Amino acid sequence: MAEVEETLKRIQSHKGVIGTMVVNAEGIPIRTTLDNSTTVQYAGLLHQLTVKARSTVRDIDPQNDLTFLRIRSKKHEIMVAPDKEYLLIVIQNPCE
Amino acid sequence: MVGIASPPLSSALEAQGRRSPRSAQARQGGAISMATRVQPRQLCRAGSAGAEALATGGAASAEGPGRPGPLQDETLGVASVPSQWRGVQGIRRETRSCQTASIATAEKAAQTRKHVDAEVQTEAPVPVSVPPTSLHDDPRLAAFLRRVEAMVIRELNKNWQSHAFDGFEVNWTEQQPTVTCLHTLGYPPAQGQGLHVTSVSWNTTGSVVACAYGRLDDGDWSTLKSFVCAWNLDRRGLNPQQPSAVVEVPSAVMCLAFHPTQPSHVAGGLYSGEVLVWDVSNPEDPLLWRTGLTDDTHTDPVYQVVWLPEPRHSHRFQVLSVATDGKVLLWQGVGAGQLQLTDGFALVVQQLPRNAKLKKPPRGETEVGATAVAFSSFDPRLFVLGTEGGFPLKCSLAAEEAALTRMPSSVPLRAPAQLTFSPHGGPIYSVSCSPFHRNLFLSAGTDGHIHLYSMLQAQPLASLQLSHKYLFAVRWSPVRPLVFAAASGEGDVQLFDLQKSSQKPTVSIKQTQDESPVYCLEFNRQQTQLLAAGDAEGTVKVWQLSTEFTEQGPRETEDLEQLAAEVAT
């Protein structure tokens, strides 16, 4: 559907964004702007990390829940927006 | 009265014939004449006392011990000793016989079963791929994206403007503050002959460093025996003066290169123009392949050898050799230890691209001697040659034009040059292509300058003077895009970080005490903090670099791009 593609295009064209992908609840990528092998790697690893992060937050406080996950590394920043059925992963190279 | 009739003569003769000790008649005392041999036979009438005495003399003595009788022959019984010689040790013989039980035999037949060929084949794994878009997912996906889009965009914006992490760096590894010398390796017999280290090479696992001994300042043919030594740095009990493998070579070795995948195969180029491949893990017979001295081999010293993947079978490799006779040759190992020429290029002055002004070559010389080669990491067919004339050449393995050379060769030689860069002030000894940028390469020559070139233009982007003497080697760092190292004739290894300063070296490591030149250096690609350098004293020093040379900073690749984009107009 056009709306999905347009939204992803808007996110992808933002300043410094290297790649965008959408992953479903099982960790299988549904949409991506990167090549296959990189996508599969990011999807698998970040899905596991998100599950772990969510359980960490809820263990500390059962009333709380994970809303956003950011990983900052030397080379870029990975942002994960979690949901019940999907994950949106965006990789950005911030200006330094 | 003596009237005994003497027995008739016959009886006397009989008595004579008989040898009986006594005769009854003698006892009788009669007139018996006992005739013996001794005595003449004398028949005498009985009654003569003498005869009687004679006759009965022996008998009388036999009868009793009276008076000894005269000698008489007697016949005694046979005295015999029964022989005991064989009697006691008699061999007892018994006859016995034995026989094995009869062999039982039986007939049996065996036969292979029938067999059937079956093939098994695994299915190629289906690569996990992004499944194609499916319509029924979209409404929920669209709703999800609508929900998160605003938040994501907000975060992206914040990130772009944030200074929260400016200058924030995390130390994950222990910081190495200075450059230290880990090992000083040498081979005393080679050092005793005054040989220089002409080339060092790390193997594919990064644990073995090999060096070649030869001389770089001899101008004439030398029959000096030289060595290729290898040290395994990961082995316990490493003795710096005793290499773990030594290969004796009949001529000076000018260059070395380890095989990209086999940890113990190393190729070397000799002063005589030959190219050899050794297996340093086999001490008895290390020589694997050689080119021999045929029409195809180089006629001048081989200055550099490089391993290249074969065009069709990328797991097999061939050797490329570069020599000052102007030829660039590709060799393939075929059976029986022979390296065979598969492809070749020749550099001829007339065929060089005329875009840069070159000095007129001396009359009669048409070959351009090549002294260094470096392959681009982005395009496997593109390579840069450093020449004796001081100008680097951009060349391609796919060049088609035939070379106008008179040198004999079994394979047609081609002219590889596509672009001539502007020259140094003297011959080039080393070139190195950047592993991070497809267009940048460095060249170092005898004028003591380093030139940074871009493949797109003939003029260098930057020219740095590092030394007042020759520069023998230059290498880009495999981990930091802006760092390179150079070996100088003044005995030091200079490390440049273009991010910090483009004018002077960041670190200058003094390798030799008496300013004898450092001839070669190589970074270790597996253990990126190690750098090996060989000098004219015959020692190889393994330097451990500080972390500032091994850890990539945040924006280095971009800075490199920026540098490359400074194309002078």
From TrEMBL, chain A:
Main location: cytoplasm
Protein family: Belongs to the GAMAD family.
Subunit details: Homodimer. The cytoplasmic dynein 1 complex consists of two catalytic heavy chains (HCs) and a number of non-catalytic subunits presented by intermediate chains (ICs), light intermediate chains (LICs) and light chains (LCs); the composition seems to vary in respect to the IC, LIC and LC composition. The heavy chain homodimer serves as a scaffold for the probable homodimeric assembly of the respective non-catalytic subunits. The ICs and LICs bind directly to the HC dimer and the LCs assemble on the IC dimer.
Organism lineage: Eukaryota, Metazoa, Chordata, Craniata, Vertebrata
Stated name of the protein: Dynein light chain roadblock
Gene, per the UniProt record: DYNLRB2
Pfam families, sorted: Robl_LC7 (PF03259)
Cited PANTHER family: DYNEIN LIGHT CHAIN ROADBLOCK
GO cellular component: cytoplasm; cytoplasmic dynein complex; microtubule
GO molecular function: dynein intermediate chain binding
Domain Roadblock/LAMTOR2: 4-92
Cellular compartments annotated: Cytoplasm, Cytoskeleton
Residues forming coiled coils: none
UniProtKB/TrEMBL annotation, chain B:
Location of this chain's protein in the cell: Cell projection, Filopodium; Cytoplasm, Cytoskeleton, Cilium axoneme; Cytoplasm, Cytoskeleton, Cilium basal body; Cytoplasm, Cytoskeleton, Microtubule organizing center, Centrosome
PANTHER family per the UniProt record, alphabetical: CYTOPLASMIC DYNEIN 2 INTERMEDIATE CHAIN 2 (PTHR12442:SF26), DYNEIN INTERMEDIATE CHAIN (PTHR12442)
GO BP: cilium assembly; intraciliary retrograde transport
Gene3D superfamilies cross-referenced by the UniProt entry: YVTN repeat-like/Quinoprotein amine dehydrogenase
Molecular-function annotations in GO: dynein heavy chain binding; dynein light chain binding
Organism of derivation: Ursus americanus (American black bear)
Protein's job: Acts as one of several non-catalytic accessory components of the cytoplasmic dynein 2 complex (dynein-2 complex), a motor protein complex that drives the movement of cargos along microtubules within cilia and flagella in concert with the intraflagellar transport (IFT) system. DYNC2I2 plays a major role in retrograde ciliary protein trafficking and in ciliogenesis. Required also to maintain a functional transition zone. Acts as a negative regulator of the Toll-like and IL-1R receptor signaling pathways. Inhibits the MAP3K7-induced NF-kappa-B activation pathway. Inhibits MAP3K7 phosphorylation at 'Thr-184' and 'Thr-187' upon Il-1 beta stimulation.
Keyword Aminoacyl-tRNA synthetase: no
WD repeats: 511-547
Keyword terms, alphabetized: Cell projection, Cytoplasm, Cytoskeleton, Phosphoprotein, Repeat, WD repeat
GO CC annotations, alphabetized: axoneme; centriole; centrosome; ciliary basal body; cytoplasmic dynein complex; cytosol; filopodium; nuclear body
Family: Belongs to the dynein light intermediate chain family.
Region (Disordered), start-end ranges: 1-38, 55-77
Protein's UniProt name: Cytoplasmic dynein 2 intermediate chain 2
Compositional bias (Low complexity): 55-64
Keyword Cytoplasm tagged: yes
Main localization of the protein described in the UniProt heading: other
